[in-house]
Amino acid sequence: xxxxxxxxxxxxxxxxxxxxxxxxxxxxxxxxxxxxxxxxxxxxxxxxxxxxxxxxxxxxxxxxxxxxxxxxxxxxxxxxxxxxxxxxxxxxxxxxxxxxxxxxxxxxxxxxxxxxxxxxxxxxxxxxxxxxxxxxxxxxxxxxxxxxxxxxxxxxxxxxxxxxxxxxxxxxxxxxxxxxxxxxxxxxxxxxxxxxxxxxxxxxxxxxxxxxxxxxxxxxxxxxxxxx
Length: 228
Description:
By secondary structure, the protein is α+β, with helices and mostly antiparallel strands. It has helices at about 1-10, 20-60, 75-95, 95-100, 175; strands at about 100-110, 115-125, 140, 160-165, 180-190.
């Protein structure tokens, strides 16, 4: 009789733990959470790359000696400082130059009144070229994406920056893969710049040139911010 009463009470009992429902639903909830986290991280990295492109173009448009007697000269060390600044801005997590490529171009007007790329400087391991032209190329209608091109004015220059970065997943490439993030930005050169060339501060001990034929990664930076 006791057993029958216990069995009857058990059959009427509606309390308990939804183990089955939890076991079935948990994988979907976990997957959605991880997917959302990966998507949020991708959006954050995308924003960082865009900001780096803008700041690079802005900083490169400002560099040069300050002088009231002559146009500003720019130096290879100035270009290196701009690349160092971009690496610091990106942070260790981004690994900008180990996962991407930065191309800085100076768009100017040549003696024939044509738009052309006077010089380019590059940094990054990723083996990609500029989407808009190489140093020395004459551009018929300016530089940039179709419908959004920029033009340099005579005796003036425009700094045009391209950042091509391969996204590294935070959790797994099963969610978004490893897409390329591409961002461009441009700024007109500030003040009056000496457009003839990029100088060396000490010809006997020249600073490294960020040639576009080289594919180098992160810059070694000391604790004091100096380049090692």
